[in-house]
Amino acid sequence: SLARADLLEKSLGRLTEHHDALRLRFKRETQGWEQRIAARENQRVFECVDLSSLTPEAQTAEIKRITDEAQPSLHLSEGPIIRAVYFDLGAGRPHRLLIVIHHLAVDGVSWRILLDDLRRTYEQLCRGEEVKLPPKTLSFKRWSELLGSHVQSGAVHQELEYWTAEPRWNVGQLPVDRVGDNTAG
Q1: Burial class (CB in 10 A: 0-12, 13-18, 19+), 52
Q2: How does pLDDT run across 97-120, given as a tens digit for each residue?
Q3: Is-contact 47 84, C-beta < 8 A?
Q4: Dihedral sign, CA of 112, 113, 116, 122?
Q5: Which of its termini does the chain have fewer beta carbons within 10 Å around, N or C?
């Protein structure tokens, strides 16, 4: 169990090294939000929780408590924006792995890629092999640079009239269940 947790922690470390978006940082500046990619993740991403001495009911309650705390513990400016918790439930019980990633860094397609890379990394480490992940396609940093260059080139100005045309502003009202302010409360 400890060996499994150690391999998972190493696998997650490799994952955050390989995928720039898992090291994103956002900071509010006077001119707006600034985004950067940390060179490495210096915050603790992985935690192993031993629940083997608890009853199944107490394990469920503790898993829920830790799970409820995981998402709010992500920190956009200081990191990490990914956390993983490995729950050791004892011999004869399936262990659990919780992974949370801030929604600014992951979507449905990205989850599949990350989980596949995590599986691949874990299996390679289990076999004592060198970790080899698929080569990066276009890094998030490079994509951002290219997007900025595209905007600076003026090419997007040709599309401005299309996106700001009158028909795009004349949209009907969405149906509502009741009248009032749309608040989180």
Answers
A1: middle
A2: 999 999 989 998 899 999 999 999
A3: yes
A4: negative
A5: C
